[in-house]
Amino acid sequence: MALDSKQALLTACRRLLRPLARLLIKSGVSWKEFADVSKVAFVEVATEEFGIRGRPTNQARVAILTGINRREVARLREIIESGEQEEPRYLSAAQRLLSGWHQDPEYLDAGRPLVLPHSGAAPSFASLCERYGGDMPVTALLKELKAVNAVAEQADGRLQVLTRVYIPQEIDGDRALRSGSVLEDMGNVITHNLISPLSEPRRFERRAENDAIDPKHLPAFQSFLADEGQAFLERVDDWLTQHEQTDSESPDAKRIRLGAGLYHIQNHKPRGRK
Predict the structure, then answer these.
(1) Which of 15, 53, 242, 259 has the smallest C-beta neighbourhood within 10 Å, fewest atoms?
(2) Which residue, 95, 84, 88, is CA-closest to 28?
(3) In total, how many domains does the chain have?
(4) Is 199 a domain residue?
């Protein structure tokens, strides 16, 4: 049975979010923090792109389009207009525990986090988990914090906190921003092709893939793609440079951002040979 368009989009969205969720989890971002970011994006797009006759969308219509109540829409629009980044209002159990260890007076000595016994009455790691870890088991939290080098166990069995922030894997900020830009470009192409009128030309979006490749050919494919892909992008860059409008030639000419991108496809889940 064919999916209706809304269900199909939600299914596609879930697939899109899987690699993003992997990145966010590795960086210590909780789903609630991501939900806050997604609300801002919904309000931003509804405000800027769904107005009548080119004007920003009014608050009531943004609320209708997004399903976010008007008070929350107003708050988020203020954040968007100010250009400031909203601080996350939610912390994971691990982050709450680390923050409590550094801020709760009962777990401090002269402003420094205490070295804690594993169990017993406060101050102890078990009592800290009970106070800040929610319903997370003590053993599971300790195992996770040790794995990311946030907590170390001393020779006598007591626990020392090493960091104030829970980050499973450190990600370079500049590379993360670039990746966001790449995902935005790909998303804009796909969205344009799905919702633009039939009278508008579709933007180029193609894939070449095969799910029956022996892994031993991976190094050769990487080398092939690096050489051929780079050569193609250099030809694209030459074309764009030849057609670039400079300020001296036409200072008032309309300009658009134009380009092309390539990406390497690889996973272990066959999706049909193509």
Answers:
(1) 53
(2) 95
(3) 1
(4) no
Say if strands 159-161 and 112-113 run parallel, antiparallel, or are unpaired.
Answer: unpaired
Contact residues for 124 (Cβ-Cβ < 8 A; gap 6+)? 116, 117, 118
Residues 6+ apart with CB under 8 A from 261: 182, 185, 186
What residue numbers bound the domain in which 43 lies?
31-90
User: What local confidence, expressed as pLDDT, does residue 3 receive?
Assistant: 60
**Model-level pTM?**
0.56
Q: Is residue 24 part of a domain?
A: no
pLDDT of residue 86: 57
Q: Is residue 63 part of a domain?
A: yes
Q: What is the pLDDT of residues 20-66, one digit of tens each?
A: 888 888 777 888 888 888 999 899 989 988 887 777 888 898 999 89
Calculate ∠ Cα 26-28-34, nearest 5°.
105
Cα dihedral value 12, 13, 19, 24, nearest 10: -170
